[in-house]
Predict the structure.
Amino acid sequence: MKSAILTMLRSSKGTVSGPFMAKTLGVSRVAVFKHIKVLKESGYEIDSGPGGYFLKSWGDFVYPFEFADRQKNIHYFESLESTMDEAREMARQGCPPNTVVIAGQQTRGRGRLSRKWLSNAGGLYFTLVLRPSLPVALAHRALFAASVCLCKVLRDLTGVAAMVKWPNDILVDEKKLVGILSEMAGEGDLVSHLNLGVGINVNNSPHAFEPKSVSIKELLGKPFPRRLILEAFLDKMDDCDPVARNIIDDWRELSCTLGRRVIIQTPRQQIEGIARDVDTDGALLVERADKTVERVTYGDCLHQIMEPQQ
């Protein structure tokens, strides 16, 4: 009902009367009044007057009722320690595929290698639970697919020059805009569930903890609705086949890592060289100074001096 009321208010160029709303929605005027009251308490700026109701601004909200067709699968929390932790429990308890856990803020948000991810108000922090029919050996494709889908969404919606960095970041002008984590559970050789944790700097200011970061608001010089980003990303993921051959090709085209001199820090060693390519398994192929090629499946990637591909 809240979703329907918001749709009516947003589609109207003026005031919408209570009686008209009630008749259209098939409820009483009192019911409309109560839902409007809850929306106001949730932060929506809705004027009430003799002529009815008027939505002063769309706001920047990611409540479940903002996503009418997906509402039953979206779970919003004002604050969580981590959306990944909450989604893991939901996945273990059998939540449906495409369940989304969103947090207004995270108190223990984390990035790669258990680093802290600053999750202050205004950012978009969520975990998407997937249940793909994939063998465990191909699970990495879902992470690449998510990076490609989100990078394209950000480019299309905002016009920013977003690019993917191996293995799972999205940058703009070498500044971090997005971090993506994955967590998988399997049954035998098949994936049981695959959780993708995503943190996007949208209308927040991440510099306090991560100086080499940027937000969409800073790039555009104005706030941007988080709802539009999440909605477009989920739609694109619905249409994406993670095992399609073009996923890796698309990643290559959007990459700001390939052709760069890089340092890869793994738990056991440090690898330096030129990032030449990624293989079909998503491993980074690094050419060392002696021309040998190291296949890297995991590690922290640091970009060095630009060097063109040969």
